[in-house]
Amino acid sequence: MEYQLDSEDGGLRRLKITFSSQEVLAEWKKAALPFGGAFRMAGFRPGKAPLEILEKRFFQQISDAATDALVSRGIDRALAEESLVPAAGLRYEGDRARRGQDFAFSVEFCVLEEGNLPDLEAIHVLEEAPQADPVQESLFMRDILGRAAERVAVTEGHPQDGDIVQIEVTGKMDGRVVAGMNTGSCRMRLMPPRPGEKTPDLDPVVRGLLVGETGTGTTVCPDNYPDPSMRGRDIDLVVTLRGIERETLPVLTDDVAKKLGFRDAGALSASAHARALEMDRVHKYSEGKKSLQNRLENLEGFEAPRALVQQCQREALHRSRQYLQHQFDSVDKLKETLAVMKSEAGETARGKARARALLLGWARVAGISVPEEEYERVLSVRAARKNMDVESYRQGLARTGELFELRAAMLEERALNELMKKVFRP
Questions:
Q1: CA–CA separation, 57 and 414 (whole Å)
Q2: Domain boundary assignment for the chain
Q3: CA–CA separation, 77 and 79 (whole Å)
Q4: Residue 126, number of CB atoms within 10 A of its CB
């Protein structure tokens, strides 16, 4: 294997890798082995079919497997020898490997240059003491007592507070179903709105129905919906009420508490209070973490490498294209929408890239890393979802660049959590 590394301003690196035809042949034979073991053909013993015969039947699969293995090995070796760590995903350019030919490909990626970082630990995110919300505490109390509640199906009358309803919801705009606005059959509990909260648009529609009836309402398409032309417009909701269940809660007594696993009624109430306190603590921490992320994205006086900004923008547009290409019948409409999103993605990408550069740079200084076993665990779970072995899954991600985006994202999240420990204080 030979490689050439080119560097450009803005953190961009281009890596060109070439494998000889002999190296390709060795990997090609290895990739063909699983197919040879399962292939049966008259005139050949099991597992003894010539490579040429296997190629005629499984050429695409063999080529993909050999290509993924060579790309993964080549990138890993070159990055290790150059001591480089990509700050985001890679851009792969090249054809598939073919037996009897040299195999050459290239990848572009971004790295973080050594440089001065602002003092991130000087940021202050206010930590407020948690408080148990009375409404939330009563909901936890209801949840605990609900284990001993009598639940009956209601066939007459409208739903009430506390009822569990089974509904189906379809969102439409201009007579067309809106992606992401359809629930299928789902269950939800109707609760009174908390003080200061807006009643969900779905709530009055459901409360006005009898079992078996269908009603309509409207909601506003959110500002972050992938299709900009739909944002802020009304979405028609078609709601069908399939069932109502109503609970009769037991009166809280020491005997009831003991049946539910508590020492007495006081211990049950204390448990509900503790859960409400913990919920508020988690909520305040989550909001603080969002605040820290936002401050990093908008920190003045620091700019991320240009290559990282461009990569963040490409990834955002790629995700949008994958989602939107199934939503439009017209190619022109898809192009028009993506053009609008490209300008929006530019500003968003600058913020995301700035935060990542700050966090990855701080992680390097602070000696923060993601344990290899944690990374392997994530890969194993993802591979299992696709019914793939981990190594094949890893090699496929190397060619798409997602492998290095995953590593960078995991380290960014780890760094954000560690930074929160420093800046989240009273």
A1: 46
A2: 2-110, 120-125+278-425, 150-248
A3: 6
A4: 11
Instruction: Give the count of alpha carbons within 13 A of 39, CB side only.
Output: 21
Tokens of 7: 């560097």
CA distance 266 to 254: 8
What are the tokens at 108?
């572009």
Per-residue pLDDT tens digits for 284-326: 999 999 999 999 999 998 989 989 988 888 877 666 665 555 5
pTM over 0.90: no
Angle, CA of 298, 304 and 306, to the nearest 5°: 130
What tokens does 350 get?
């600058």
Confidence of residue 211 (pLDDT cuts 50, 70, 90): very high
Neighbour count for residue 224 (Cβ, 10 Å): 7
Determine the topology of domain 120-125+278-425 in CATH: Trigger factor, domain 2 (1.10.3120)
Helices (H) and strands (E) counted in the chain, each on its own, are: 11, 11
Amino acid letter, residue 215: G
Helix (H) or strand (E) holding 180: strand 176-189
In angstroms, how far is CA 108 from the centroid of its own chain? 24
pLDDT at residue 250 in the model: 94
**CATH 3.40.50.300 is right for the domain spanning 2-110:** no
| CATH code assigned to 150-248 | 3.10.50.40
pLDDT band at 334 (very low <50, low <70, confident <90, very high): low
